[in-house]
Write a structure and sequence with these properties.
With about 110 residues, the chain is mainly beta. It has one domain (about 5-100): Beta Barrel (OB fold (Dihydrolipoamide Acetyltransferase, E2P)), CATH 2.40.50. Helix content is about 10%, strand content about 55%. The chain has a five-stranded mixed barrel. A hairpin with a 5-residue loop joins strand 5 and strand 6. The radius of gyration is 15 Å and the shape is globular.
Length: about 110
Amino acid sequence: MNDTNIVIAIGRFTKDPELKFTQTGTALTNFSIAVNEKYKDTEKVNYFDCVSFGKTAEVICQYCKKGARVAIDGRLSQERWETNDGEKRSKVVIKVDNIQFLNNKNEQGE
């Protein structure tokens, strides 16, 4: 049986994305989205770190601004690194494969 790793989220950009390039010249962007969760009378905001590569990263940087409402799909990935003090760290990010723009023409981040 194969494992499945699929994430779909709808949220808003928390800041403007920035385009960077890897040493091999591949475009990449790191960004985060805020996703509102409502349960009965309680509302909670969840923040998710995301990363995208290639043409998708370029499109995100060209068209997305802080506040832009988007639907993303991709997969979870655990990033691991070691600090200068030798401490091991990790975090889970969403590797975005596809993005859909959900803003109305009057909304910020168009």
